[in-house]
From TrEMBL:
Organism: Coregonus suidteri
PANTHER family (alphabetical): PROTEIN KINASE DOMAIN-CONTAINING PROTEIN (PTHR24342:SF19), SERINE/THREONINE-PROTEIN KINASE 17 (PTHR24342)
Gene Ontology terms describing biological process: intracellular signal transduction; positive regulation of apoptotic process
Basic and acidic residues bias spans: 328-339
GO MF, one example: ATP binding
Name the UniProt record assigns to this protein: Protein kinase domain-containing protein
InterPro entries: Kinase-like_dom_sf, Prot_kinase_dom, Protein_kinase_ATP_BS, Ser/Thr_kinase_AS
Amino acid sequence: MAQIKLQNVEDYYEIGEVLGSGHFGQVRAVLERASGVRWAGKFLKLRRSASSRLGLERRSVEREVEILQSLQHANIMALRDVFESRAEMVLIVELISGGELFDFIAEKESLSEEEAIEFLKQILKGVGFMHTKKIAHFDLKPENIMLADKTMPHPHIKIIDFGLAHHLKQGEEYKSLSGTPQYIAPEVINYEPLSEAADMWSIGVITYILLSGLSPFQGDNDEETLKNIVGMIYEFEENYFNQTSIMAKDFIEKLLLKDPIERMTADECLVHPWIKPLTRKQAANRSRSSINIKSFKKFNAKRKWKMSYNMVWACNRLFRLQLQCKSRSQEDPELRQCESDQEDTETKPASLIRRRLSSSS
Ligand code: ATP
């Protein structure tokens, strides 16, 4: 494992604005004092004690660091430096300034399948690289697919958030109940041994959404979504897929297969005729077909709304936990800003909202 610095991160980097928030901390822009180069700093709160309900176990962050260190690829967020103190760990990573791929697409008036494939190819290359290293991401979803610089003519994909990623070792079984309901594979829900194929399922779901603006297994609540996944209940609704090529549907069908062994691998996806047409007719079909941009925009707007709602929910929960630990006079003003009068009902099955098993309590 790389040298983790025990010095204060602020001796090396000036801390800037908040770029995003996760379940266990914030991501902020940082400026390297020595070079003047801008990076992003992922500040992760550590558990103070084994009985604490707040923060991550140190080992869990160390695993994320080890994984990022072994993944140097153009389509994967690069790790630069790591700092550690008693209360937190700070991962200095490549600054990704282009925002989320889905937000970029939602701003467009139209997008052909051919253009969508250019992004998908990059996702497949990044994921394929991870898989050659026997690392599975286990949390592929639109929020974790970003763009390096959206002002470039052909923006570059960057895969982020390796908090649930796992190094799969030969002869070792790995099971986990973590993930995000809409995107998780049936074997995760069934608590069966996991492999890289779980990521390929998620890519199938992402592609389905990208083309139609519909989420294939989405139910009225998470329980229903999980039931639909396990029951393999999905279809290509004609209303939403009338602009989609037959090859695109074939591509999705070969990923949304219940048996993980049957699913295409990332390398197989890259040579599927939808991604790499063999004939002129196939190529022409692809450029004539387009994504359902109207429906996609709606999906994305709803997704963003849910993300901000969940963040308020998480902040409220954190705030209440803090109240249990501290007296009112010591309340954290930042957490108080997150309070809302939204009803705080937990609809997610307990096991699946816990993002990292080691962080559950
Ligand atoms: P989660 O709770 O979803 O697992 P997390 O705590 O692991 O989150 P990330 O998902 O890695 O944190 O980052 C949270 C948010 O910060 C992202 O959704 C993104 O908006 C932003 N972000 C993360 N990494 C970068 C980066 N390198 N450059 C710019 N913004 C970033």
